[in-house]
Amino acid sequence: MMHEKPVLIREDGLRHDGRRPDELRPIKMEVGVLSNADGSAYVEFGGTKVLAAVYGPREVHPRHLALPDRALLRCRYHMAPFSTMDRKSPAPSRREIELSKVIREALESLIFVDLYPRTSIDIFIEVLQADGGTRTTGLTAASLALADAGIPMRDLAAGVAVGKIDGVLVLDIDEVEDEYGEADMPIGYAPSIDEIVLLQLNGVLSLDEFRQALELAKKGATMIYKMMKETLHNKYLRILSEE
Amino acid sequence: MSLTPTKQPIIPRIKRETIRKLLARGERIDGRRFDEYRPIKAYLNPIPKAEGSALVRLGNTIVMTGVKIEVGTPFPDRPEEGVLQVNAEFVPLASPTFEPGPPDEFAIEAARVVDRNLREPRAVRLEDLVIIPGKKVWIVFNDIYLLDHDGNIIDAGMLSTMLALNTARIPSIVSIEGDNVVVDKRNKDKKLGINLNVVTVSIGIINDYLLVDPGLEEELVLDGKITIGFDEKGRITGIQRTGMHGIPSNMIDNIISLASRKAAELHSYLREVLNNPTTYSKTLAEIMKSEG
To answer: Which residues of chain A form beta strands (DSSP E)?
Structure first.
């Protein structure tokens, strides 16, 4: 049902959940959380909770899909039926098909795929609870899971969405801000090589607003990237201390 | 599940190298400037039975868009609005690499990019499409039909979509009894309301070079591609980055400026076609004869 548009930017300049415009939601990350997968990660951006698993490099099934000169990348972004307010059908939607593609393409550019010819690297992203920014949280989790699997990459990609709400550009929008805001711009950014690996804009922005939004997104992604590196670092410290 | 494409058209290594080598000399494989579109030809109303239609040739790429307008139920969260549904079909007659079946991820992506660039700036006046509030509205089905694939499907699809929607007329309502709406499709009186026009500009990236409107052979050797939508006021209406390589972030500014300049050109072409509908209305037989 149609709800009244909530106040997104309060009189004190803060957002509906009390964040500053350039503030991320509380972020939690963990790697190696699943035992069967070769690599896995759990990432939480506020109410958005995502698990990613990587299997591979492994033999390709069916075999005719194998590529002679590089690894085949397969990526599935999927939302659990209970992840949303109204139950989502588990069958893949057109949105999920598109997001699987943009996430796969983001990762294609980072993985050294020619090191593993005739194999597949399968990336599974399950959104367990959705509260805005699921594709960017998913990309962040997938990057961590690939690193956890020990797959060589040019860089890690950190994902974050910038939005325009009540005329203000804000970092890391949640579901309410996405629903009632004027624009949503998810990006995937690899800070060490300074490359944009995912960029979409849903909404209307002036050229100037776009430039500011991109800067804000890169700043946010760089903060997330630091947390990703710490998360991986801590995992290896833990392994060392257990030896 | 999204897979690394395995059924791309084969492009000989020698041609791949030629395309890249020519760029260093400032040339493209088909002789265009880097910032030049292929010749664009647009035709209005090739399908009289549709509520609106248009066909666009972009070089050798041919895209047709047909609009059908039917009575249906609104989305429960938008009872006071009609529905716009954008779909794209990459039918097998358009390329040796296309196969019959439901739309693949490329067709779905193309349709969704066009859809978002229309929806976000409210290009179509959906609020005018209500018949019985909350119960019956007009549903606008916008089907993009790719007939010959030579690259840059999205820009051609967006252009033909915009033209088809501008020509679309709503069937007349004969009677409304309770929730039963009787429609006469042979009688189309009212034009579909359009708030503003939108075009997309796709730019391919190879090394440091930016190529406007990449053709299929160029698409196959690109590092990456970015599609940016602009409305007629020069605002950005949507962005989609595609392809298997990232974009160095210091190139983004140049890409956006170049795209905004090319968008102005496409908008003036769009206006020219829409202001002279008789000049640009052709039968399919005439279009097929005209060899682009």
So the answer is: 27-31, 39-45, 48-59, 72-79, 119-129, 158-165, 168-171, 183-190, 195-205
The string of pLDDT tens digits covering residues A218-240 is: 999 999 999 999 999 999 999 88
The answer to whether B167 contacts chain A (CB < 8 Å) is no
ipTM score above 0.95: no
| Gap between the Cα atoms of B260 and A207, Å rounded | 9
**A61 at B interface, C-beta within 8 A:** no
Which residues are paired to A164 by β-bridges? Answer: A169, A183
Query: Does the beta-carbon distance from B120 to A183 stay under 8 Å?
Result: yes
User: Measuring CA to CA, which residue among B211, B256, B216, B217 is closest to residue B234?
Assistant: B256
pTM: 0.91
Contacts of A131 (CB under 8 A, 6+ apart): A45, A46, A47, A48, A174, A175
Cα–Cα distance, B238 to B227 (Å, whole number):
8
Interface test with B, best of A136, A196, A197 (most B CBs within 10 A): A196
Distance from CA of B78 to the nearest CA of A (A): 7
Cβ(A52)–Cβ(A142) under 8 Å? yes
Q: Across the strands, what pairs with A186?
A: A161
